[in-house]
Specification:
Order of helices and strands: EEHEEE
Largest sheet: 5 strands, antiparallel
Number of helices: 1
Distance between the termini: 15 Å
Structural class: mainly beta
């Protein structure tokens, strides 16, 4: 957690999750699911198991 937001690091960058993850996702989705980040008028975290959902994220500098 950082400034009240869940945070994760990847590739030397730190990301803050702006959107909450859906309640239907497993409790350990972040450790077991295949996720990726893409830019579409902002940065989003996508989960290949749930392709219809995207979570807004921001880069913490």
């Amino acid at each position: 957690m950082y400034l009240g937001y869940p945070r994760f690091q990847y590739g030397g960058y730190s990301f803050l999750m702006v959107d909450p993850w859906p309640e239907g996702w497993s409790e350990n989705w972040y450790a077991s699911d295949d996720v990726y980040i893409d830019f579409d008028d902002g940065y989003y975290l996508y989960n290949r198991r749930y392709p219809e959902a995207r979570l807004a994220i921001t880069i913490a500098l």
